[in-house]
Amino acid sequence: MENKKKLTTSWGAPVGDNQNSITAGHRGPTLIQDVHLLEKLAHFNRERVPERVVHAKGAGAHGYFEVTKDVSKFTKADFLSKVGKRTPMFIRFSTVAGELGSSDTVRDPRGFAVKFYTEEGNYDLVGNNTPVFFIRDAIKFPDFIHTQKRNPKTHLKNPNAVWDFWSLSPESLHQVTILFSDRGIPATFRHMHGFGSHTFKWVNAAGEAYWVKYHFKTEQGIANLAAETAAEITGTNPDYHIEDLHNAIENGDYPAWRLYVQIMPLADADTYRWDPFDVTKVWSQKDYPLQEVGRMVLNKNPENYFAEVEQATFSPGNFVPGIEASPDKMLQGRLFAYSDAHRYRVGVNHNLLPINRPRNDVNHYQRDGQMRFDTNGGGAVYYEPNSFSGPKETPENNIAPYEVTGSAASTAYSHDDHFTQAGDLYRLMSEEERARLVANIVAAMKPVERDDIKLRQIGHFLKADREYGTRVAEGLGLPLPVNA
Question: Whose CB has fewer CB within 10 Å in the chain, the N or C terminal residue?
Answer without folding.
Answer: N
